[in-house]
Amino acid sequence: MENKFFKTTLLGAAVALASSGVTAKEVGINSDFNVEVYGVAAISLVNYNTTDNNDKSSGYAVENESRIGFRAHKEMFENVLITMQIESGYVDSTDWSHGGVSGGVLGFRDTFVGASGDWGNVRVGRILTPLYEIVDWPFSNPGLGSVFDWGGINGHYDRQSNQVRYDSPKFGGFSFAASVGRDDNDNGGGAATRDANFIGANAKYSFEKITFMGGVESGTRVVAETGDEWAIGTAADVTNKVKDADKVLVTEGDNYLKSKGAAGYDSDTFAYIVGFEASLPAGFGIAAAYKGEEVDGGGEKVTQDSYSIIGQYWNGPVGFKLGYAANLDSETNGKTDKDSDSNTISGQLMAVHNGFVPYLRVAGRTVGAADTDIVTRVGLEYGF
C-alpha cells in the first residue's frame, strides 16, 4: 500500500513538471535504481516529576520521535553495490550545537553514499561512529541515555557528518568496523570542522548465544580559538555554578561562553567501551558494559567511568526490561569532583502485536546528592 501511494505521488509530480515544460524521471518506475522508503512512527506521552537536578520542572509533554528515510541502490560493478541514503531526524529533536537546527530535517540522521560487497561496506557521510554504535545499542536502552549516552563528561562522538567508515564482513563470528572523521561542531568560521578530527573502531565476536563487543575512539576538538567562543563545561563548573557576565554555565558536558580575552585551546578526547550481550534460557537475557572517557585540554584533564547493566524477559509477544546505568565520580587533574556522579534505573513493559509496539516506561534519575527525578513514559511505535 505504501509503495503504491509513493508511486502515485511521484506520478503526480511528474505530470506537473511535464506540464511546465520540465521532464522528470519517476524513480523506481522507469529508473533501474532500486528505491526504498522506510521509517518509524513513534509517539509518547511523558510525565516529569523533577526536583533540583536539571530542568526543575514537572508536568507532561507529548514527544514525537517519528522519522522517515529514503534509500536507493544499484550495482555499479560486479560485487560493488552503490547505496545512497538520506534520513530525517526525530520530529521533536533539536541539535543546539548546530545553532538550533531542527532534528526533523532530511539528512539529520544516517545520510551517506556507500559501496558494499562480500569484501565489506564503506560509507562516506553522516553515520554513527563505531564506538557510539555500541554505546547506543544495547547499553542505553531502555531509557538509560541520560547517563550512559549523553550524560557525564562527554568524551566521545555520536553521529558525525564528516566521516569515512568501513565495516568488515563476518569472519566466522568475528567482525570489526573502523572510521575517521572531522568534528561537526562549527564554532565560527568553520575552524572546528577543519582542525578537529577523530579516529575510532569496534570489534564484535559472537558464538552460541553470546556476543562480546568493544570499541575505542580518540580525537581532538577545537574547543575555542578566542575567549568569545564556546568551551566545554566540566564537573567543576557545574559544582561551582559559574554565572556572571562573561561566563554562562549551561550544564556539565554542554557549551558555555569562556571569559572574554581568554586564550582558546584544543581538547584531546579518548573513550573506550567493553561489554557483552547474552540470551539465556526460558526467555531471559542480559547485557552489561563498562565505559571510560577522558577530556584533556585548557589545563584540565577530566576523566569519568560509567557502567550499564540490563536484564530482559520475554514471554511470547510480551517483554520486560530492567536497566541500571551509573556515571561514577569524575576527576579533574586527579581530584574527585563533588556531586559529579549520577545514575538511572529504568523499567519498561512492552508488547509486539502486528508490528506495533506499545510500551510503558518508568525511570528514576539521580544526580549527586539531589533527590531522584521520576519520569514516566507511555508510547506506541511501529516501523515500516
Annotation keywords:
single chain, 384 residues, mainly beta, Porin, two-stranded antiparallel ribbon, 23 strands
**Largest sheet strand order:** 1-3-4-7-8-9-10-11-12-15-16-17-18-21-22-23
- According to CATH, the homologous superfamily of the domain at 44-58 and 133-383 is Porin
Coarse morphology: globular
CATH class of the domain at 44-58 and 133-383: Mainly Beta
Distance from first to last alpha carbon: 11 Å
CATH topology (fold) name of the domain at 44-58 and 133-383: Porin
Give average pLDDT, whole number.
Answer: 80
Total number of β-strand segments? Answer: 23
Helix content: 10-25%
Percent of sequence in beta strands: over 45%
CATH architectural name of the domain at 44-58 and 133-383? Beta Barrel
Q: Topology of this structure?
A:
Elements: H1 2-19, E1 34-49, E2 58-64, E3 67-77, E4 80-87, E5 94-95, E6 101-102, E7 111-117, E8 120-128, H2 130-136, H3 145-148, E9 159-167, E10 174-181, H4 191-195, E11 197-207, E12 210-224, E13 230-232, H5 235-240, E14 255-257, E15 265-279, E16 284-297, E17 300-315, E18 318-327, E19 331-332, E20 335-336, E21 342-351, E22 356-367, E23 373-383
Antiparallel strand pairs: 1-2, 1-3, 1-23, 3-4, 4-7, 5-6, 7-8, 8-9, 9-10, 10-11, 11-12, 12-15, 13-14, 15-16, 16-17, 17-18, 17-19, 18-21, 19-20, 21-22, 22-23
